[in-house]
Amino acid sequence: MKPTLLILAAGLGSRYGGVKQMDKVGPSGESIIDYSIYDAIRAGFGKVVFIINKKIEKDFKEVFEPKLNGRIKTEYVLQELDDLPIGFKYPKDRVKPWGTAHAILAAKDVVQEPFAVINADDFYGRNSYKKLAAFFADENRTENEFCMVGFRLENTITESGTVSRGVCSLDENTFLTQVVEHTKIQKADDKIVFINEAEETKEISGNSIVSMNFWGFSPLLFKHLYEGFKSFLKSNVKDIKSEYYIPTVVTEMIESEVAKIKVLESTDQWFGVTYQEDRPKVVESIKHLVASGVYPENLWG
After folding, report:
1. Inter-residue contact 60 to 76 (CB < 8 Å)
2. What is the distance, to the nearest Å, from the Cα of residue 236 to the centroid of all Cα atoms in its chain?
3. C-alpha to C-alpha distance for 225 and 115, rounded to whole angstroms
4. Cα–Cα distance, 159 to 7 (Å, whole number)
5. Which one of 60, 133, 177, 299 counts the least CB within 10 Å of its CB?
6. Greater confidence, 104 or 160?
7. Per-chain mean pLDDT for the chain
8. Element holding 222 (H helix, E strand)
9. pLDDT tens-digit series, residues 37-83
10. Which residue intervals of the chain are DSSP H helices?
């Protein structure tokens, strides 16, 4: 059974200043999503599911349907505020969706196979998809054994501002034991630093493994997401800014021993468009990869 690629693309990019999911950064007008799908197809994925919002649904389909038709099966799922378990209602003044874990849950009716989860605006690299596909192909893998593609922190820093990263702890068998969110990470001369909760500046190793929201799951996850989301809503439904995040769910599953997360380290250079100022570097990075023969000049030509 071929795995599915689930792309989280419902956000509107407030820091970026536009719909960055469809921003043209490749030499023939490709977006970062195009490269993600291209890499997934090369790695043996059989379907792509877009998690989007109503405001960009029409534009999304007009952009991706023609180029993907005949290349890979596609599905579109809307992440909506009122998609809640029975008995819950969202506050009328809430605007933002319920977070990345809620976005995955929205796909429960269209995903029955192992699946990867990625951010729409992150470039993960060809080898990352190959590693994840190999994990799915392992016949000894159990249904409750998930994975995460981890990146070295030094390969995920932007020059345009601070970033937040989930710093990972691993056991001796490279299974994930903990993800701790670090905010305001940035380069400072030849070091990488972050600001902790006490507003202190602390150094952090560039070799630290961080989560960039590149996960591999089985459909077993949906049951845990649903039950976890109900618990989340009981405490947070009235908080208009509260969000249900993937690392929260993963941590809960690890602590309750209902799932294990294998960490697959990638040495690929991550890049993304968190800020508008990131765009020139992304364009240049892709141009270099095309010149190196990693990608054709026209992905879908």
Report:
1. yes
2. 23
3. 15
4. 25
5. 177
6. 104
7. 91
8. helix 220-236
9. 999 999 999 999 999 988 888 888 998 999 999 999 999 999 999 99
10. 32-43, 57-68, 100-105, 126-137, 220-236, 246-255, 279-291
| Paired sense of beta strands 271-272 and 122-123, if any | antiparallel
**pTM of whole model > 0.90?**
yes
- What is residue 58's three-state secondary structure? helix
Q: Is 210 helix (H, G, I), strand (E, B) or coil?
A: strand
Q: Going by DSSP bridges, is the β-strand pair 145-152/73-78 parallel, antiparallel, or unpaired?
A: unpaired
Render pLDDT for 151-179 as a digit per residue (tens, 0 to 9). 999 999 887 788 889 899 999 999 999 88
Residue 286: both structure tokens together? 């892709």
Contact between 156 and 165 under an 8 Å Cβ cutoff? The reply is: yes
Angle at the Cα of 128 from the Cα atoms of 132 and 33, rounded to 5 degrees: 105
Query: What's the angle, vertex CA 141, arms to CA 139 and CA 143, rounded to 5?
Result: 120
Give me the amino acid identity at 277.
E
- Tokens 């180029």 locate to 67
Strand partners, 8: 51, 119
pLDDT for the residue 18: 46
Say yes or no to pLDDT of 286 above 70: yes
Q: How far is CA 231 from CA 58, 88, 92, 96, 262, in A?
A: 34, 11, 21, 19, 26
Question: Distance between CA 110 and CA 140 in Å, rounded?
Answer: 25
What is the three-state SS of 64-103?
A: HHHHHCCCCEEEEEECCCCCCCCCCCCCCCCCCCCCHHHH
Contact 22, 59 (CB under 8 A): yes
Return all residues near 79 (Cβ < 8 A) that are at least 6 apart. Answer: 10, 51, 52, 53, 97, 98, 102, 103, 106
Answer for the pair 186, 163: CB distance below 8 angstroms, yes or no: yes
